[in-house]
Amino acid sequence: MKKRVLFVCLGNICRSPAAQAVMERLVDDGEMSELFMIDSAGIGSWHTGQLPDRRMREHAQRRGYELTHRARQVRSGDFERFDYIVGMDEENMHDLRRLAPSHDAAKRVISLPDFLRHHPGQTTVPDPYYGGPRDFELALDLIEDACDGLLDWLLT
Ligand code: 4NP
Model-level pTM? Predict the structure, then answer.
């Protein structure tokens, strides 16, 4: 059985499509594509159908990631389709637990920054949308660090 992982952020155009691409590459590099299904979605529907934010695509491309996901809103069926629903910050966690159709489903909601290993004291993947280049770089640094930790955890 594949492990199914859904990354979620607010708009599904910056952090979660980046996390999806980072995790897909880690899984591919480890020749584990058969073991995982990775997707991403947003709390909001404002950007449905859009490619990721151009700034995030450019920053990610410099690290070798091609972001081609089309934004979509998270839906209640995702809590049945996915084993893990991975939020980026406290607001995402709160919204996801509220959207979960059952107490059991809410237990599938986990926090990406909990898996950071090289950023002591960092408890969120901050939203870069209203920020500048450094905010996008930080988001990618955090996402790469935490996805590495998350993958190890999923494999134990
Ligand atoms: P994301 O960033 O949650 O990392 O995709 C955002 C993108 C868009 C908006 C907010 C956050 N927005 O308000 O449109």
Answer: 0.98
Termini Cα distance of the chain: 15
Return the domain boundaries, the chain. 3-155
Q: Give the mean model confidence (pLDDT) for residues 149-153.
A: 98
The residue whose C-alpha atom lies closest to atom 9 belonging to ligand 1 is 11
Q: Indicate the top mutation candidate among 127, 130, 135, 143 to test ligand 1's pocket, ranked by most ligand atoms within 8 A of CB.
A: 127
- Classify 3-155 by CATH class: alpha beta
pLDDT at 59: 98
Distance CA 95, CA 46 (A): 16
Q: Is 10 near ligand 1, meaning CB less than 6 Å away? A: yes
Q: What is the DSSP string of 85-128?
A: EEESSHHHHHHHHHH-SSHHHHTTEEEGGGG-SSSTT-------
Query: Does the CB atom of residue 125 touch ligand 1 within 6 A?
Result: no
Helix axes 15-29, 54-62, angle to 10 degrees: 30
What is the percent of the chain with per-residue pLDDT over 90, rounded to a whole number? 99
What pLDDT sits at residue 90? 98
State which of 13, 20, 45, 142 you would mutate to test the pocket of ligand 1, scoring each by most atoms of that ligand within 8 A of its C-beta. 13
